Amino acid sequence: MNEELFPNQLLSRLGGLSIATKSGRLGHHKGTHRSRKTGSSLDFSDFREYHMGDDIRHIDWNVYARTGQPFIKQYLDEQEMRIHIVLDSTKSMQVDGKWDYARKICVGLGHIALKSGDTVSVSTRVQGQSRFIRKKGVAQRAAVTKFLSSIEEPNSESGFTDNLLSYIPKALTVLFLVTDGLEETENWAHLFKRLRGICNDVRVILVQSESEELPSYEGDVRLVDIESDDGVEVTMTNRSIRQYIEAKEIHEGKLFALAKKYGIQIIHGKVHAGVMTLMTKRMRQVGWLE
To answer: Which H/E stretch holds residue 75?
Structure first.
């Protein structure tokens, strides 16, 4: 991943956003999120950079006089959130720009959380091996971007839901799953049931390309499953396209119903719409960001 894939000027547009949650499972380290616990200490803890919207009464003017930069006094009752992002690296993520789009989402979420003083971790699987990074602080944004850049292409042989629980850390505030959601619904049902015991706020972003929404193939074609290499000869007609769309809608309907059953939130992430539309509009509309 490089500057051209997610330019700094676009990342800067995310600077005023923060991850919103109703979960009460906050960490015990300093951050920028007010704890809901009563009786917590108001002792001074540290400084952090002033962000647009902060109460100017909390600016330390002595520090401002020395440095020329506004800093906010931070107290022990301001606690961090622990954000974890799981990136789907199965082979189906290779096609139609889904992979770059998914990595942009991860970079954007990481950027927002780190700038808010939260702890961010990201995990995925590469050639059967789990890859994991955990960072905190705005200075660590480059490290998270570099980590995601180092994953050249999705090539996991196993399914996204397989062994996923083994590389998710404990005591999370918010868990994001960035995936195309093509696993069998039985696998999702098993995963969703267990995820609720790990995190109270689980969010799934279904990455979809334009060709997945409405195939543009014509005539006789051979379709190959990129993960299994199984192929099938198909004549693309209006009827076959309608059958595909119906099957897709049935799968997604089951997935959304399962998510609702287990209190998990899902939104679509459409590659052709762009990551900024997803993060600055859609995620704000559903209350994921504020």
So the answer is: strand 71-75
